[in-house]
Amino acid sequence: MTKTVLVTGGTRGIGRAISETMKAKGYKVAANYGGNDEVAKLCEKETGIRCYKFDVADYEAVGKGIAAIEADLGPIDIVINNAGVTRDAPFHKMTLDQWQQVINIDLTSAFNVTRQVWDGMRERGFGRVINISSINGQKGQFGQANYSAAKAGLIGFTKALAQEGAKKGVTVNVVCPGYIDTEMVQAVPEKVLESIIASIPVGRLGKAEEIASMCAYLASEEAAFITGATMTVNGAQYIAG
Ligand code: NDP
């Protein structure tokens, strides 16, 4: 039977590339988003992928969103926890609000979504959870204490949950993209971006499709023995041990 995939933050950037790649592979795809209706409408129009608006930081809203998706497309077999934001500031200027927004949207979201599809995956004996972390969750980044903490948290979450899902056919993995050419990175000041590109041995930013193809592999039946893994996709900018 055709499997159903939920991609959080699936309407633009890396998430949209994941949504499109999964659709091209024959999955039923639900793309979630947070607030940008215009982009979501465009995504629906251009791809034919159904888009669902709910805040991944809000447990109840996620529950309602998942119920709507499952009513439309069937039980969710594969979750890609991709939605994320940055609220950068050096720590001495970071506010509690900046801290909480990033922890809630980038980390607690993974609990909110995964917890509400987990029982079904266990019962059906198949599931794929793919968390999108970041190079900056692996190595830390100046001005991103909140984001680095949230993204490192996703790596620990993955390692623990992989052990719980293993006997039930549910794999849990984390993908750590390096700098990928999306709006999030285009917002970085030009001079800073130049120095970032200079530090990438491959000599360029990554493409959203290069993250999507890793997710598609991890979601496949072939990847059943890969679980608890941290997959680094960063052009050798940071080589984790
Ligand atoms: P974008 O900013 O391009 O897209 C973010 C997506 O997340 C949008 O669809 C957005 O919806 C959605 N979103 C944001 N907040 C919420 C929310 N509260 N509830 C539901 N959806 C929400 O991000 P990228 O594509 O650049 O990044 C995707 C993921 O990859 C993120 O987790 C990011 O941290 C990670 N990453 C990105 C890197 C990069 O270089 N771009 C590098 C490493 C990791 P809406 O349009 O409605 O706002």
Describe the structure.
Residues 3-183 form the Ketoreductase domain. With 241 residues, this protein is of the alpha/beta class. The protein has one domain (4-231): NAD(P)-binding Rossmann-like Domain (Rossmann fold, 3-Layer(aba) Sandwich), CATH 3.40.50. Helix content is 49%, strand content 16%. It is built from 9 helices and 7 strands, in the order βαβαβαβαβααβαααβ. Helix 3 runs parallel beside helix 4. The mean pLDDT is 97. The structure holds NADPH dihydro-nicotinamide-adenine-dinucleotide phosphate. NADPH dihydro-nicotinamide-adenine-dinucleotide phosphate (NDP) binds next to helix 1, strand 2 and helix 7.
Q: In sequence order, what are the helices and strands, one letter per element? A: EHEHEHEHEHHEHHHE
Sheet with most strands: 7 strands, parallel
C-alpha termini separation: 38 Å
CATH structural architecture: 3-Layer(aba) Sandwich
Beta-strand portion reads 15-25%
Please report the total strand number as a whole number.
7
Low-pLDDT regions: none
CATH topology: Rossmann fold
Counting H and I runs of at least 4 residues, what is the number of helices?
9
The helical percent reads 40-55%
Counting copies of identical and different chains, the oligomeric state is: single chain
- The total number of structural domains is 1
Radius of gyration: 17 Å
Ligand inventory reads: NADPH dihydro-nicotinamide-adenine-dinucleotide phosphate
CATH class: Alpha Beta
How are the strands of the largest sheet arranged?
A: 3-2-1-4-5-6-7
- Mean pLDDT across every amino acid position: 97
Characterize the overall form. Answer: globular
Structural class: alpha/beta
